[in-house]
Specification:
Strand content: 25-35%
Mean pLDDT: 89
CATH class of the largest domain: Alpha Beta
Radius of gyration: 28 Å
Number of strands: 51
CATH topology of the largest domain: TIM Barrel
Number of helices: 10
Largest sheet: 11 strands, antiparallel
Oligomer: single chain
Low-confidence stretches: 1-63, 260-271
Number of domains: 3
Shape: globular
CATH architecture of the largest domain: Alpha-Beta Barrel
Helix content: 10-25%
Length: 759
C-alpha cells in the first residue's frame, strides 16, 4: 500500500485540463507503461507507474502542467531558470529554460519501503534533529510535525516564517532565484527555541536537492574528500551501511579527545588519517539530463559537515547536503580528578550564525564536475576569496635542519642539514640544470623542529646560526630561488616551553592535549588564537628586520576548533575570524605560503603546500578526481605531498601531471637512519644523494608541462575507459594520462601504459 501523502501528491500532478499532451488518466496503480513525461520535457515510454505498488518508477517520470511540475507551482523565473515551489513542504523544482531539464529538492515518488520519518525528510525543505531532555534525539520536519507557515512571496522567491507549534521551535527560510541558481538562507535571528523540552541539534536545508532513486539517473555526486571524489548514481545494491560525512575544516578538538595512534609492533602505522575537507562544497550531476548543481555553504560552514549518501544507506535514494550543527554532545567529567567517569551532555547554548547554502546550477557541457570546479573558482575570484599569484614553475626541495633525541636527562641535537650543506645541494642541483627552486626550511630554529612555539628569529647554531641562514636566504633570492622558514603557529611543546598559560581547554574545561606515539615528545598543546597572533607578529618583526620575509605558515592554516579560556567559551566562527585576520596582516608584511590552508585563508597565501593527490580511499567512493587542483590551477602554485613517501612514484608522477600540481621533496644531507630515535622516525628515506635522480626526472617532466600551461586554468577533465583521463586547459592544451595496463587512444592520440601525452 502506498503512503497516504503520495496519493495526495499524485492527485495534484495529473490534471487532464492542464496537461500539454493527451494522456489517458486512470486511478493510481492502474496506469501501465503507456508513457510519461521525462525530466527534459520529452515524452518517453518508460512504464510510468507500477500497478502493484502505485509509485513512479524513475526520477525522470513527470507530470508536467503549464504552471506546475510534480505538484510544485510556478513561482518566478529569470533568463536561465524557472523556480517552482510546493507550499505544503516548501520543496523546490528548478528548471533549466533552455533544455527543459529540472532538479527537485524532494522525492516525488515512494517505493513503499520508507516509514513516515524518512518520508518527512525526503520531502521537507528543512529537517531538524532535536535534543529531548538533553539525551534523546528525534526528527522534526514539515510533514510529520504540526507547524504553521507565513509565506511572503517576493520578486525572486519567498520568505516563510515556520513555527512548530507543539515543539515550540521556529525559524525563517528565505529562498531566492539568482542569476546562476538558488540561495537558501535561515537568518540566525529568526531561530526560536521557546520551550523547555526540545532544542535544535542540527539543521539540514534541502537535503534531497537533486536526489535520485537507485540507478534512475546517470551521473554522480561530488565528495570534497581530499582533492575530490565521485560517487556514481548507479545501483549500489545495498552494499553500504553508511555514507560519507566530512566535517568542514576538520574535526573539532574542543569536543573530541586526542587518541594516540595504534601501531603494529609499536612501530608501524597501519591506518592512514582521513583527508580533510578544505572547502565547503558538494554537488550532484545528472549527466544524461545535462544538469548539475554545486552546493556552496556560504554561512555556518564552520559548524557544518558535508554528507554524501549513496542509495542503500538507510533508503534507496542518492543525496548530498550540508548538515549544520547548532549543538554538540560532549563528555563532561563528573569530578575534577575523574579520568573515567563522565556524563554525555549537550551544549547549553547553540551556535549563532546564519545558515546559508548557494546552489549554483550548471547545464549543457558545464553540467560536470569540471564545470563545478570552474564555477567555484569563478565564485571565489568574484567574491574576493581568491587572488591571482605568480604560478611560475618551481620544484620544491624542503630541508630538515635539526631534530632531537633523548640523552640521559635531557635531549641532544640530531643535525640533518646545515646551511652550508643546503647551499651545496642547491649548487649541485643548479649544475645539474635544476633552477628556480622553492624550499621550506624545517627545524631551523634553536632547539630543533619541535621547539615550539617560535617567538623570535634565532637559528640553531648547529646548522650555522642566524647570520648564515639569513645569508643563504638572500643568496637564494638573488639567484631566483625562494627559501621559506617553517613556522607551526598552533602547537606548544610543554617539554621545551612553558605551556601553563595561553593554551586552550576543551568545552568540558579540561586542557586539550594532542597525544603522539613518539619517542621524544609525546604531548603537544594548542595555543589560543590570540597567543598565536602575538607570537607570529613578534617573530615576523624580528625576521623582517634582517631583510628577509619568506614565511611558510602551518598549524593554524588547517585547524579550527571550539575552546574555553579563562572560563569563557570561544567558537569555531571566532577562531576562523581570528586566523583570517592574522594571516591578512602577515600577507602584508611577508611573502607567505601555507600548508594545507582552509578556503577562508586562500586569499592570503601565494601557494598551497601539501595538496593531497588522493582521497581517503573510502569504499563508497568510485573515482578520485583532482577537483581542488582544478579550482586553484592557474590561480596559485599548488604543491603535492612529498614524493619521498610514495611507494609508486610513477603513478604519483602521473597524478601530478593530471592535476597540474608541482612536486615536493623532503631532503636531508645525512641518512634518514639518523632520525630513528627522534619524533621524525617516520622519515625513512630522505638523503639527497638517494633522491637526486628523482628530483631531476620530476623537474624535467613537470617543468616542460608547466611551460605549456603557465597561467592557464584546468577547464575540462574526463575519465575515459581503461584508465585514460583527458585534461583540458583554458589555453587549448590537452594532456592525456593513461593509468591502464595497455596503450589507449582518444582524439587520435595514443598513450602508452602508465604514461602521458601533451597535445
Amino acid at each position: 500500500m502506498a503512503h497516504k501523502y503520495f496519493y495526495k501528491r499524485i492527485s495534484g500532478l495529473l490534471m487532464a485540463s492542464s496537461l500539454s499532451v493527451g494522456l489517458a488518466l486512470s486511478p493510481v496503480g492502474a496506469i501501465a507503461g503507456s508513457g510519461a513525461f521525462v525530466g527534459s520535457g520529452t515524452f518517453a515510454n518508460s512504464g510510468a507507474l507500477r500497478a502493484a505498488g502505485g509509485w513512479l518508477n524513475t526520477a525522470s517520470v513527470t507530470a508536467r502542467a503549464a504552471d506546475m511540475i510534480n505538484g510544485h507551482k510556478f513561482l518566478t523565473e529569470n533568463a536561465k531558470y524557472r523556480l517552482y515551489v510546493n507550499e505544503e513542504d516548501l520543496s523546490l523544482v528548478v528548471e533549466d529554460k533552455e533544455t527543459g531539464s529540472f532538479m527537485e529538492s524532494s522525492v516525488s515518488y515512494d517505493d513503499g519501503k520508507n516509514n513516515n520519518i524518512w518520508l518527512g525528510a525526503m520531502r521537507s525543505a528543512i529537517v531538524l534533529s532535536l535534543i529531548n531532555n538533553n539525551s534523546d534525539t528525534t526528527q522534526a520536519d514539515l510533514i510529520n510535525d504540526d507547524n504553521t507557515k507565513n509565506i511572503k512571496y517576493t520578486d525572486d522567491g519567498f520568505s516563510a516564517e515556520i513555527y512548530w507549534t507543539k515543539l515550540k521551535l521556529g525559524m525563517t527560510l528565505e529562498v531566492s532565484l539568482t542569476e546562476d541558481g538558488v540561495v537558501a538562507r535561515i537568518p540566525e535571528e529568526s531561530i526560536k527555541e521557546d520551550g523547555k523540552q526540545y532544542f535544535i541539534g542540527t539543521v539540514r536545508i534541502y537535503p534531497y536537492m537533486g536526489c535520485s532513486y537507485l540507478d534512475d539517473k546517470e551521473g554522480y555526486m561530488l565528495v570534497p574528500d581530499g582533492n575530490g571524489a565521485l560517487i556514481y548514481l548507479d545501483n549500489k545494491e545495498g552494499r553500504y551501511a553508511s555514507g560519507y560525512s566530512g566535517t568542514i575544516y576538520g574535526t573539532d578538538v574542543g569536543f573530541e579527545e586526542s587518541q594516540q595512534e595504534t601501531l603494529l609492533w609499536d612501530r608501524y602505522n597501519t591506518i592512514t588519517d582521513s583527508e580533510q575537507v578544505f572547502a565547503p562544497v558538494y554537488g550532484i550531476a545528472h549527466t544524461a539530463d545535462k544538469m548539475a548543481f554545486l552546493g556552496i555553504v556560504e554561512d555556518g560552514q564552520e559548524r557544518a559537515s558535508i554528507d554524501v549518501m549513496p542509495n542503500g544507506v538507510s533508503v534507496d535514494y542518492n543525496r548530498a547536503y550540508a548538515r549544520f550543527v547548532l549543538r554538540r554532545m560532549y563528555n563532561q567529567p563528573t569530578s575534577v580528578n575523574s579520568t573515567t567517569g563522565s556524563l554525555h551532555v549537550y551544549e547549553d547554548d547553540r551556535s549563532h550564525s546564519d545558515l546559508k547554502v548557494k546552489f549554483v546550477f550548471l547545464s549543457g557541457e558545464e553540467a560536470t564536475y569540471a564545470g563545478m570546479a570552474n564555477a567555484y573558482r569563478q565564485y571565489l575570484l568574484d567574491n574576493g576569496k581568491l587572488t591571482l599569484s605568480d604560478t611560475s614553475y618551481r620544484t620544491r626541495v624542503d630541508f630538515l635542519g635539526t631534530e632531537r633525541e633523548n640523552w640521559l636527562l635531557s635531549t641532544t641535537p640530531v643535525v640533518m642539514t646545515t646551511v652550508d650543506e643546503a647551499k651545496e645541494i642547491y649548487k649541485d642541483l643548479e649544475d645539474s640544470g635544476v633552477g628556480n627552486l622553492l624550499t621550506v626550511y624545517k627545524g631551523w630554529q634553536a632547539g630543533g623542529l619541535y621547539d615550539l612555539p617560535i617567538s623570535k628569529y634565532k637559528a640553531d647554531s648547529d646548522i650555522g646560526g642566524t647570520a648564515a641562514l639569513t645569508g643563504f636566504i638572500k643568496e637564494a633570492e638573488a639567484a631566483g630561488n625562494k627559501v621559506y622558514l617553517y613556522n607551526n603557529a598552533l602547537l606548544v611543546n610543554p617539554d621545551e616551553q612553558n605551556a601553563t598559560f595561553n593554551t586552550i581547554k576543551q568545552v568540558n574545561k579540561r586542557r586539550y592535549e594532542e597525544k603522539e606515539h613518539a619517542l621524544v615528545y609525546d604531548t603537544f598543546m594548542y595555543l589560543t588564537p590570540e597567543r598565536s597572533d602575538y607570537l607570529l607578529e613578534k617573530f615576523v618583526k624580528s625576521y623582517t628586520s634582517k631583510g628577509v620575509d619568506n614565511l611558510a605558515l602551518a598549524g593554524i592554516t588547517s585547524t579550527n576548533f571550539t575552546y574555553t579560556y579563562s572560563g569563557e567559551k570561544h567558537t569555531r566562527f571566532e577562531v576562523a575570524e581570528s586566523y583570517e585576520a592574522t594571516t591578512a596582516l602577515l600577507a602584508e608584511k611577508t611573502n607567505m605560503v601555507m600548508e594545507k590552508p582552509c578556503d577562508y585563508l586562500w586569499k592570503n597565501t601565494t601557494a598551497f603546500l601539501d595538496m593531497p593527490l588522493y582521497t581517503s580511499s573510502y569504499i563508497i567512493e568510485d573515482e578520485s578526481i583532482p577537483f581542488m587542483s582544478m579550482v586553484l590551477k592557474g590561480v596559485m602554485p599548488i604543491y603535492g605531498d612529498y614524493v619521498n613517501f610514495e611507494a609508486n612514484k610513477k603513478e604519483f608522477l602521473l597524478k601530478m601531471v593530471e592535476s597540474g600540481v608541482y612536486p615536493s621533496f623532503y631532503i636531508t644531507d645525512k641518512e634518514a637512519s639518523e632520525l630513528i630515535n627522534t619524533n621524525s622516525s617516520d622519515i625513512y628515506s630522505s638523503q639527497y644523494q638517494v633522491f637526486k635522480g628523482t628530483i631531476l626526472e620530476y623537474d624535467k617532466e613537470l617543468s616542460a608541462l608547466a611551460d605549456k600551461t603557465l597561467g592557464a586554468n584546468i577547464v575540462g577533465h574526463k575519465i575515459l575507459d581503461n584508465g585514460l583521463r583527458v585534461v583540458t586547459y583554458s589555453n587549448g592544451v590537452k594532456v592525456y594520462v593513461n593509468y591502464g595496463s595497455g596503450s589507449q587512444s582518444a582524439d587520435g592520440v595514443t598513450v602508452e601504459s602508465m604514461s602521458y601525452v601533451i597535445k
